[in-house]
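Quarterly update from the structural biology core.
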Amino acid sequence: MPIDYSKWKNIEVSDDEDDTHPNIDTPSLFRWRHQARLERMAEQKIEKEELEKKKGTTSSKIEDLNKKLADSSLSEEEKKAAEAEIAEIKKQEEDFRKKEAELEEKERLQPWNVDTIGTVKIDKTRITKVGEKKPETKNISDEEDSKRMYKYFDEHESKLKVFSRLEGLDKTEEYMLEYPLLASEYAVNWITIEALNLAIEDKNDKEMCVVAEQNTVLQYLLELAKSLKAEPTNTNMIKNFFKKFKAADPQYMKHFHDEVASFQNRLRLRAKQKRDDALAEYEAEEKQKRIAEAPGGLDPQEVFETLPVEMREAFESREISRLQDIAANMDEEVFSYHLKVSFSYSLHSLIDALIPDCGFPM
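Predicted structure, tokenized:
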């Protein structure tokens, strides 16, 4: 039977490439590529979590509304309103299912890489000397790795939160020696997600910068352990790393701080894009609601924007005298046309208090 090699065509690599320019620091380039992948994976995780949260909310709403409909004392008007709300929620659920399918397809088409191709993990912990070979490992599936990661998050979240906010190498070293299990790729994933969430919230840039720096320190430690073929959770390994790091020459530290700054800027850019996407999605939903409620089948807000500036300002001010002045000075047919447009697309809600007894031409 011929072997199908097509699934191997799109493997994304970082630490086994040899096509870099001689003037580019290759280890740094690999770190940047790896970090960018982790950021994309973190974003996908956040999208999935948000979608699950929305699905849970809609299911709860439908359950509450069905209970409400079961109430025999409900008026006909209240019953219709509840049924209309259920129909709208079911429409949202259909949108959620489409979004879920899109995310699954995106994940399916995502190139394989060292983080998703089948991660190698340690099934036991033991103390080793720096440089001693790691214990034997075995391959595990992505599903099993994901379960282990979430279990790790649950068990160590409080420690990760503290660690990610520490400032200074001495405090970081002391904390890692107390909790060596923080020297893990799972910890890097958690801190990446935490930094991205802070950037999206956009409330405390300094806090986000601290978390991003701790993420980079941890990645440097894991790289040193990898290069020495040592266990990163080994306290001797952790001490060795911080000893070397604190004694690093200025050029090396400049390089480190440049990487941290680059990571922070990428987080800001990705966060802005996420906020913009969320705002665009919200505005699209609001627009659809306005259209659904408008008798003319068009967005009332957009129709309002087509009116002459002076009419828009008069409607917003709710000053009848301003509308009367416009009616007196504007061509009667033009004024009548715009006024009819206003009513046709539910804009009369802006001027309900102005119209009675005004004698405007309709």
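Confidence is low (pLDDT under 50) at residues 1-26, 112-132, 353-362.
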